[in-house]
Design goal:
The chain is α+β, with helices and mostly antiparallel strands and about 375 residues long. Helices cover about 35% and strands about 30% of the residues.
Length: about 375
């Protein structure tokens, strides 16, 4: 029997997974409040690589056309020597189906803008600069007490508050992100005319030197190295440091490096891994996206896994099943975890393995085989 009472959900975090699950639940008639800690709704960043399985969810959200107009689509990846010679170009698997590109590169702020517009249009209530400081659960719901002194009552709380989720800790889940030993320098830059897809150079002073077109006029470029003590790197030197690391690379890199002048536009981040073992919920609070799992971007699947979480969770929660009983809601949340865990584990482990092979200097690693096997599975609907 359908639940006669309107369902109410609090979404904590307005990133990709939080925005996506909000839009999908609103479409199902669920009342949703979304809170985001950042007053600017987290619209920072350089670029993002979205593979077909991510695009499939964005189409489900109704934003595919805007993504297509704003991004740069391509269907292959090039492998290059450090001097810029592309010695192999490989067609990517279209993990979202043959009617979607294999990959779209986008400016990350633009993707966030598109998702935020969809959340606003959905009719959800959005509160920026707000956190949930306390969640008090009982058999029938959750009382959330907010940083502005107000409180709300909800049937379900969805924690989409990222890698360092405070909600995860609040509900007693002890897993924390662990560094993998690598770090990445990222910057948005003008697109050289020669850049029409992602090309990756392995070797040289960095483990990986790569770039991805994000529009007709822009790219984001990245350099992956062993992680360093972040406190030892002056943020004012970020542009100089990224140019220094880029200097030995050829091809499009000299033009890219010449544009790296503003240290405020350079981002330096460690790679982390996270996989919450066991259930992803405690009572009426459930984790999605990076709050439950995260991986290095070696497969470019982080955002895709988060978007898939949102899609699967919303599908299960939109069914005509009662949320009144904690047992019935718990059954839905358990099914969500069961649908996701094997697929997510595969991606996390493969992403970490690709980096570990480089850290260990393994020269005969089956990189193409591991990537191919993983992408073939991801072509299946989650």
């Amino acid at each position: 029997m359908p639940d006669p009472r309107p369902r109410t959900v609090l979404v904590i975090g307005g990133g990709a997974s939080g925005n996506a699950v909000t839009v999908l639940l609103r479409r199902a008639g669920v009342t949703v409040d979304l809170i985001e800690a950042r007053p600017d709704w987290n619209v920072l960043g350089s670029g993002i690589t979205l593979q077909g399985n991510a695009l499939r969810v964005l189409r489900e959200l109704g934003v595919w056309e805007k993504v297509q107009e704003s991004g740069y689509a391509f269907d292959s990846v090039g492998l290059a020597t450090p001097d810029g010679h592309v010695f192999h170009a490989q067609q990517d698997i279209r993990t979202g189906g043959e009617d979607l590109p294999a990959t779209i590169g986008m400016q990350r702020p633009r993707l966030q803008e598109i998702l935020c517009e969809a959340v606003r249009a959905s009719g959800a209530t959005v509160r920026l600069g707000t956190t949930a400081d306390e969640l008090v659960q009982d058999e029938t719901g959750v009382t959330a007490r907010f940083s502005d002194g107000t409180e709300g009552r909800y049937d379900l709380v969805i924690a989409a508050d990222g890698l360092n989720s405070l909600t995860r800790t609040m509900i007693g889940i002890s897993e924390k992100p662990e560094p993998t030993g690598m770090a990445i320098w990222r910057v948005a830059a003008p697109r050289p005319a020669s850049v029409e897809r992602t090309d990756l150079a392995y070797g040289g002073p960095c483990y990986i030197a790569g770039y991805c077109p994000t529009s007709e006029n822009t790219i984001y470029a990245y350099l992956v190295e062993a992680n360093r003590d972040r406190a030892s790197i002056d943020p004012a030197s970020y542009a100089d440091e990224m140019r220094r690391l880029a200097a030995p690379y050829g091809g499009a890199w000299p033009e890219i490096a010449a544009s790296i002048t503003d240290p405020a536009k350079v981002n330096y981040t460690w790679f982390h891994r996270l996989l919450v073992e066991g259930s992803w919920h405690r009572g009426r609070v459930v984790l999605v996206g990076d709050a439950a799992h995260a991986c290095p971007p070696t497969l470019a699947q982080g955002a895709a896994m988060s978007l898939e979480d949102a899609s699967v969770l919303a599908e299960l929660l939109s069914a005509e099943e009662s949320w009144d009983s904690l047992d019935s809601l718990g059954d839905l949340l358990t099914r969500y975890h069961e649908r996701r865990i094997d697929r997510v584990r595969m991606v996390v482990e493969a992403s970490v393995q690709l980096g570990q092979w480089q850290l260990d200097g393994v020269r005969d690693a089956d990189v193409p085989g591991l990537i191919g096997r993983t992408m073939s599975v991801l072509k299946e609907t989650p």
